[in-house]
Amino acid sequence: MMRNVHLVPEDEDDIYTGYNDYNPQFDEDIDNDEGFQQAVKTSHGRRPPPTASVKPVLGAGPRPLGTAAQRMKTGMVSSMGRPTTGAQEGVARPMTAVRAAGYSSAPRGMQFDPLNQAKGPAPPLEAKAEDSPEEKVKQLEKKVMELVEESCMANSRAEFSLALEKAKEAGRQERQLVRQREQLASGEQINLDLTYSVLFNLANQYAANEMFNEALNTYTVIVKNKMFSNAGRLRVNMGNIYFKQRNYAKSIKFYRMALDQVPTAHKEMRARIMQNIALVFIRMGQYSDAVTTLEHVMNEKPDFKSGFNLILCYFALGDREKMKKTFQRLLNCALNIDDEDKYLPHPDDKHYNMILEVIRNDTLRRMEREKKTYAEKCIMAAAKVIAPAIEGSFAAGYDW
């Protein structure tokens, strides 16, 4: 930084020299200069005296008006004798250039309000007309959803006829909703979720009322619509209907079609579908095919129901060794319930005992009891079935 600093050498003269020198050519007598005096008489002499130069005198009358006031009263002329722009026959033009900032020539009694807030609050927004087409569509969509919910609640109360009536009414209202949206020609697309819910509920209510043909037709409409994602899994419901109709061939066909739609990662869902397939094979007397299906289930996700059915298939085929091995696998199936110790009271923890009284017979506890009871039932039934088959007598087989 010091390289950019310029210091004055000692041998140079003072840098302030010459400022006090005076050029005698500028020394002229202005009072005797005719050109200057002529300019003063033609231009400066015509100007009115400034306001500050007028001194007030006591008792001499009102104070004379200033320059701005004189311009407003009389037209002001320029130095060349031309009237000013604002002068119009004795009436001065109003100043409007500052009106946008909130200033005006109004009397001083008015307050400064550039945003017009003195008029009060803004008027309330206009309410949307209830009879507008968009509002009608929304109200109709809400009504359809309410009908679907009422249908489901009626089904849960075993009021199947009422549930079917509500489902049919929801279907009619949903078709009317689609027509109104088409007439409206708005950018909104059809609510596919609502359409799917209405059709799915209608098919379930048909099946609950044992109207199997109507249920199959409704399920077919859903399955064949490519806009419904994962609709192919509903072929399980169609397989169930064919099973109730004792149409076992079509039942297996639809179960397998549904199985193809389920990813391999969903092991529990695939296991349940394969259990249905094995049950159909048992009803048809094809025990070998049922064994193949149930063995796959027991290897992927073992459970008591599949193990018990597999024992029955081996019993029907007369395979003693497989009955023994499958019974041992049945005993090793997991219940998937919590430890029973959590329901034991604690003598020193009163707060825990209060909680225990609440959860001792709640819904989860009842479900765990039902699973445990079903597991014990499967084991006892399997033992009684295979006892006389694996040994010479029932007592010997049961002791095994």
Structure description:
The protein has 400 residues and is mainly alpha-helical. It has a two-stranded antiparallel sheet. The longest helix is centred in the last third of the chain and has 28 residues. The radius of gyration is 51 Å and the shape is elongated.
Give the topology, please:
Elements: H1 34-42, H2 67-73, E1 87-88, E2 91-92, H3 133-156, H4 160-184, H5 192-208, H6 212-224, H7 235-244, H8 248-261, H9 267-284, H10 287-300, H11 304-317, H12 320-331, H13 350-359, H14 363-390, H15 394-399
Antiparallel strand pairs: 1-2
Helix pairs in contact: 3-4, 3-5, 4-5, 5-6, 6-7, 7-8, 8-9, 9-10, 10-11, 11-12, 11-14, 12-14
List keywords for this structure.
single chain; 400 residues; two-stranded antiparallel ribbon; 1% strand; mainly alpha; elongated
Structural class: mainly alpha
Biggest sheet features: 2 strands, antiparallel
Helix content: 55-70%
- Rounded to the nearest angstrom, the distance between the terminal CA atoms is 104 Å
Strand arrangement within the widest β-sheet reads: 1-2
Q: Topology as H/E string?
A: HHEEHHHHHHHHHHHHH
Number of strands: 2
Runs in which pLDDT lies below 50 for 5 or more consecutive residues are 53-60, 68-75
Q: How big is the Rg?
A: 51 Å
Please give the count of helices.
15
Mean pLDDT: 78
Summarize the structure.
The protein has 400 residues and is mostly helical. It has 15 helices and two strands. It has helices at residues 34-42, 67-73, 133-156, 160-184, 192-208, 212-224, 235-244, 248-261, 267-284, 287-300, 304-317, 320-331, 350-359, 363-390, 394-399; strands at residues 87-88, 91-92.
